[in-house]
Amino acid sequence: MERKSFLKGVSATVLTGAVLTACGSPAAQSSEGSVAWGEGTIVHSVYFWLRTDLTDQEKEEFPQFFEALKKVPGFTACRVATPAPTTPREVVDNSFSYHWIAVFPSMDEVNIYEKHPDHLAAAEKFSKYWTRVEVRDSIA
């Protein structure tokens, strides 16, 4: 049983490190760039559906939102993603425009992040670009 737990932990660390090394404090990452993935880790997933009438300039400006979020303290890693060309199936939803993923060591950091003035200011500034946002948080 110990071997199974060890392998599960190693797999989670390797996969998370490969996906979530675009930002976060260097202290939270190992020399290989993987993310510390302990019990109680929170994965904060936010999906954005942008307005269909955005100009080319507005489409170019929107990623600045994620740059602003990267400055908010609390998470150990983050990543911006777009829909993958997954085979269409009833259970697949590729209708979103962007996916923001942030990893937090605990709920305490999530609670601080959600109320941080820089987070709120960025959401206020860029909310004119989207029609829908969904947040899905999970705990490891």
Helix content: 25-40%
Number of domains: 1
The largest sheet is: 4 strands, antiparallel
In what order do the strands lie side by side in the largest sheet?
A: 2-3-1-4
The third-level CATH topology is Alpha-Beta Plaits
* SS field, number of helical segments: 5
Apparent shape: globular
Instruction: State mean pLDDT (0 to 100 scale).
Output: 83
Secondary-structure element string: HEHHEEHHE
**Alpha-carbon distance between the two ends:** 19 Å
User: Which CATH architecture?
Assistant: 2-Layer Sandwich
Output the radius of gyration. 16 Å
CATH class assignment: Alpha Beta
The portion of residues forming beta strands comes to 15-25%
Which regions have little confidence, pLDDT < 50, spanning 5+ residues? 3-21, 24-32
- The chain-level structural class is alpha+beta
Please report the total strand number as a whole number.
Answer: 4
